[in-house]
Amino acid sequence: xxxxxAVVLIYGDWDESYNELPRWxxxxxxxxPGSIAVLRTSPVRVGGQLDESKAxxxxxxxxxPPCIEAFRHYKPLVSINGTHLYxxxxxxxxxAIAQDGxxxxxPVAFALVEGITAYRAFCIHHVAANFALTFKGxxxxxxxxxxxxxxxxVEFHYWFDILRSEDPAMCDWANRIEYSLWTQYCxxxxxxxxxxxxxxxxxxxxxxxVRNLPVCSLVKATYGRLAEHFVRKGREVQAQLGTGQxxxxxxxxxxxxxxxxxxxxTVTLYDRDNxxxxxxxxxxxxxxxxxxxxxxxxxxxxxxxxxQELHFPCPHALACCAFSRVTWHSYVHPVxxxxxxxxxxxxxxxxxxxxxxxxxYDGLTVIPDPNKRRAREGHPRSTxxxxxxxxxxxxxxxxxxxxRQPGHTRRxxxxxxxxxxxxx
Length: 424
What we know:
single chain, alpha+beta, 3 domains, four-stranded antiparallel β-sheet, Znf_PMZ, zinc-finger, Znf_CCHC, metal-binding
């Protein structure tokens, strides 16, 4: 294809690119000490005889010290995205993705493998999409989504019972999937509220244009793009710190919404030492009770499940903080503090070593497995097919892309002079 010929002219031959990987593995560990790169090969047999001079490429894993250090300050959650390669040879690029307290995503490790063989949890949007193929109607899909997002068992069974009243077959369909794989109330707070693959799919823009490159060029591109990403995000967080902000914009937005909800609550303190309360939700006039919840600030739990699932105060916990005149700041997970987010991007990358200075390699010649070669006719589709899961929120307010404050843009941000990079 013309496109592949153009890629060869710019980035080199696909087959030769595989043999460049062993030198890159050696070179990256000189360039960035602490980098981890593991290349696996499989034997080549010709006519039943082992070829001792060559080996097929099998798998490659790699990560860099800034990514390893950054993960110490991220949410303790990893989402793994698998995306197909579009070049001359097939395969799958796996990316381990983490998220900081301001909802920024960062690839922390990569692997080139033959395919995906395991899953840990399911994206509820995809579960609901498959559900809708069998059971038509937006109401049924909405009920399933509400059940999945429920943070406590009582709330889950409330929505599930409504779903059962609509059609028992809907519940039978959902019950075939283990609850811990798609419901929030069964995950014990491990997901930090992430019920979809949005974290993983956001990384597609990070990798745009590299999946159809020769394998060594693809690997090298991840280094350059990560270096650029660390500088850009570090500059943004530094600008936000310069405005005196303590917490991420994501957290502040959630707390502001929770504070508005908490205005109509009645709080009763039961244990002064352990800070245990009951909170009664009432109508704005205070005439009717809408429900009662037990809150423990000491153990950071609430009957609504929000506090322990998302790791910051729910509306009921905020009402208790106001009642006892204690700050809610101490009940927020450290991952949401801007100082912690800044630590993610504090370690920088080094400029890459030119290929001529890579260490020599005198091992087996690494070649691609001919069985992995793509079809010679036609070319793979490189544009993502959009679905109803890609719809954006038209009401989202516009903020500066640097300091995240409203009223101006990145171009005229007052913090632009004080934020020069990702390192302190």
